[in-house]
Amino acid sequence: LADKFMRMAEQSDGRIRKVDDFASQLNITPKYLSSILKETLNCRPSTVIQLFTMKAIEQRLRFTDMTMQEIANDLNFPNASFFGKYFKEHAGMTPMEYRNKYHKRT
Predict the structure, then answer these.
(1) What does the alpha-carbon distance between residue 45 and residue 17 come to, in Å, rounded to a whole number?
(2) Which end of the chain is more exposed for a tag (fewer CB within 10 A), N or C?
């Protein structure tokens, strides 16, 4: 189940960010999913989800010219403001600061 969750989290490409949604797809409770991951990977499902979400955001900021609104929409954030707050909370900088620092111009 842990492997299946990891594959699902990676394939969601940051678009699904709720442990409950993954647990539901796996037909188990969020609590059981948490205990499986704690036991097998020594981490929480939310940590794995956050990792894949940040990877998806960073990919778009670095390798596309999508606007912040387009990225927010693509990754199912409710709005660009929430997207910006989420990114800053986890990356320590705004999405624009990240893009200016790491964007690969073609």
Answers:
(1) 10
(2) C
